[in-house]
Amino acid sequence: MSKFTQKEIGGLYELTDAARAELVDSKYYNVDLAPTAISERSWTTYHIASLWIGMAICIPSFTMASSLVTLGLSPWLAVLNVALGNLIVLVPIQLNSHAGTKYGIPFPVFSRMTFGTIGAHIPSLSRGLTACGWCAIQSWIGGAAIVTFIAAFAPSFGDLPAAPFIGFGIFLVIVFFISIRGSEGIKWMEAIGAPILMILSLALLIWATVIASNAGYSIANILESKTDLDLVAASGGYWYVSLGGLTANIAFWATMALNIPDFSRYAKSQKAQFRGQLYGMPLMMAITAFIGAYFAQATKLGMGEAMFDPTGVLKYISNPFIAVIVAFGVVIATLTTNIAANVVAPANGFSNLVPTKISYKMGVLITVILAIFYRPWWIFGGAGAYIFGWLNTYGGMLAPIAAIFIADYYVVKKRNIDVMALFQGSEGRYWYSGGFNWKAVIAWVAGFILPLLGNLGVDGLKWVAANGYFVGFGIGFLVYWALMKSEQVSFVSDEELEALTERL
Predict the structure, then answer these.
(1) Which residue ranges make up each domain of the chain?
(2) Which tens digit of pLDDT belongs to each residue from 103-158?
(3) CB neighbourhood size of 215 (10 A)
(4) Domain covering 6-393, topology
(5) Is 233 left (phi over 0), alpha (psi -120 to 50) or beta?
(6) Contact 199, 55 (CB under 8 A)
(7) Please, are residues 14 and 7 in contact by the beta-carbon 8 Å criterion?
(8) What is the C-alpha to C-alpha distance for residues 276 and 284, in angstroms, rounded to an integer?
(9) Strands, E, within 20-63: which ranges?
(10) How many CB atoms lie within 10 A of CB 474?
(11) Shortest CA distance to 451 belongs to which of 411, 391, 362, 500?
C-alpha cells in the first residue's frame, strides 16, 4: 500500500493516483462511487443554489402549505409552518454536506464510515426506497402534465381511463434518459430550469387571484383569512395539525439530509455549498409555501373548497396554447426536482449493493422500475394521507439516521475520514464487526420505533408520531453517542501527520 493515500489542497481532499489504482480491483469500488477529484468539483454557489431552487419549485412543495390550509390552518400559519420546518431541516443538511465537499465521497460511501461497509446498505436503501416512492409521486404529477400536453392536440386522449397511466409511463422514460447523463446532465437541467420555474410560480399566483376575483373576493380577503377552527378540530385539533405539519415539512427534505453528499461532493468549496444551500432552499421553500397557501385559500373562496393539488388547474384551461405552455412548465418543474432529489440517491444506493456489477445507469433503471410498484395515486390522493401517512412515517425512520451521521462525523470521528479504508472492506478500519457497526443499527432502531408505532395507531403515541422527526433525531443522536463514547477517535491521515510534523 502506498504511504500516502490522500492529499489535501485548500481544505479539500482527494485520493492519490496510486490509491485509485490500488482500489480498481476492489469489489467495493466503481467509477460512479469513486471520490471526485478536486478538479471535478466545479459546482459554484450558483449551481448549488440552482439545484435547490429547481428542487424547491415543484408541485409537492406547493402542497406542503396548501394541504395545511385544506386541513383548516390559515394561509399565514401554513406559510410559517413550512418556513420553520425548512429552516430546521437545513441544519442537518448543512452538517452532512461537509464530508461530501471535503472528501468528494457520495452518500453510500459516506454511510460506510458510520454503519460499516456492509451495514451502509441500511441507510442507503432506506433513503433509496423512500426516493423511489417520491419518484413515483413526482412522475404521477409530471404524467398528468404530459396528458394535458397531448390532449391539447388530441382532446379525446384526455378522456381515456388509461391516460394518467400512459402519462406516468412517458414521464418515467424522460426521467431515465436525462438521469443517465449523470451530474453534468443534472447541472444543466437545474441551471436552465430555475428561471422557468419562477415564471410558472407567478402564473399560478395570478390564476388563483383571478379565480377568487371572479367570485367577488380581493387579494386582501385571501390574505386576511383565518384558521377554520371547525375544520382543524375535525382534522385532529390545532396543535396536532400544526405539529404534524411541522414534522411533515422537516420530513419533506429528510431524504436530502442524508444523501446531500451526492451533490456537495461536486462543490468547489465549503463556502460554495454552504452559501448555495442557504440562498437556494429556505427562501424558495417559503415562497412556494406562500403560493401554495394563497392558491388553496383562493380556490376555497372562489370554488367553495380548498384545492390541494395545483395540477388540478390544468383541467380548467380551455385554451390549447396556454395549456401546452403550462403543461410544459409543470414538466420542467417536476423533472428538476425528481431527478436531483429522487433518482440520484437510489441509483447510487443500488450501485453500492454490488459495485462491480451494478453501475449508476443500471441503478437509475432499477429506480424507475420500482417507482411503478408504488401507488402514487393513493399517496397523493389527499392531504391527510400525504402528511400523516406518507411524510411523517418515513420522516420518523430517516431522522435517526441523519442524527447518527452527525454524531459520528463531528463528535466521534471529529471530521476526519480515511477515504481509502471506505473501499477496503474487511481490511479497512470501517469494517467493524462482520461489516456492520451494530451500535449504529441499535441507535437507528431505538430512534424510529416509537414514532413508527405512533403512526401505526398505537394508543398513547399519537403525539410522538406527530413530532416523529424530533423524537427520532434526538434518540438516535443520544443513543449513538452513548454507545460510541468510549471509541471517540480522531483519525489523522498520513498527509496531515506529515504537515503537522513539518510545522513542529
Answers:
(1) 6-393
(2) 999 998 999 999 999 999 999 888 888 888 889 988 998 998 999 999 988 888 98
(3) 14
(4) Hydantoin permease (1.10.4160)
(5) alpha
(6) no
(7) yes
(8) 12
(9) none
(10) 15
(11) 391
